[in-house]
């Protein structure tokens, strides 16, 4: 097996897909030592000009980083968060940069289908389309299953992570 075939095999079949029209393959860069964990970071050269991404949970943390990175590659971004001020702050950061990307910050609870549909409709009105969906919204409250309140925490995790992703994908 050649080094290239081996890298492709390790990356998985089909690579990683963003949305319905943007695809890129992940690969282990040459010279990386997988056994020691010393993998050189790979650069990603994407041209997302003309594409619009919706990033749920995009106001802070990983979601903010994803929104900023997509804008760096030319995408316009609908930034969603439960907190509209936080979403708008990330959107303003994107608009204020020199990469010609536009952004709008919108509050919506991804567990509420009506809010998600209104958010997507507003995002399309502002930016023209939604081509890329990043289902990033999440909650991290979980504890031992015998603890008081576990059922409510678990239910919230399922509602946000599972049904939130379904709601956004359907919208």
- Return the string of H and E elements: HEEEHEHEHEH
The number of distinct helices, counting runs of at least 4 residues, comes to 5
Number-wise, the strands total: 6
Largest sheet properties: 4 strands, parallel
Helix content: 40-55%
Q: Which ranges are low-confidence, i.e. pLDDT below 50, for 5 or more consecutive residues?
A: 1-26
Distance between the termini: 43 Å
Strand order of the largest sheet: 5-4-3-6
Provide the gyration radius in Å.
18 Å
Give the overall shape.
globular
Topology diagram in text:
Elements: H1 3-11, E1 16-18, E2 22-24, E3 52-55, H2 61-72, E4 76-81, H3 84-96, E5 103-107, H4 113-127, E6 132-134, H5 150-170
Concise structural overview:
The chain has 5 helices and 6 strands; from the N terminus they run αβββαβαβαβα.
What this model shows, in words?
With 171 residues, the chain is an alpha/beta fold. It contains five helices and six strands. The chain has a four-stranded parallel beta sheet with strand order 5-4-3-6, with helices on both faces. It has a two-stranded antiparallel ribbon with strand order 1-2. The radius of gyration is 18 Å and the shape is globular.
Search tags:
alpha/beta; 4-stranded parallel sheet; 5 helices; globular
């Amino acid at each position: 097996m050649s080094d290239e075939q081996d890298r492709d095999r390790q990356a998985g079949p089909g690579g990683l897909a963003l949305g319905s029209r943007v695809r890129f393959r992940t690969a282990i860069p040459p010279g990386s030592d997988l056994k020691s964990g010393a993998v050189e970071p790979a650069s990603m050269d994407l041209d997302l000009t003309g594409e619009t991404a919706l990033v749920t949970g995009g106001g802070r943390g990983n979601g903010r980083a994803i929104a900023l990175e997509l804008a760096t590659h030319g995408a316009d971004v609908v930034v969603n968060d439960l907190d509209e001020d936080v979403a708008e702050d990330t959107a303003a950061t994107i608009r204020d940069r020199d990469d010609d990307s536009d952004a709008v910050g919108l509050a919506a609870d991804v567990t509420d289908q009506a809010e998600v549909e209104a958010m997507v409709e507003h995002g399309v009105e502002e930016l023209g389309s939604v081509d890329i969906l990043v289902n990033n919204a999440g909650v991290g409250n979980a504890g031992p299953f015998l603890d008081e309140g576990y059922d409510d925490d678990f239910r919230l995790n399922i509602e946000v992570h599972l049904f939130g992703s379904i709601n956004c994908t359907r919208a």
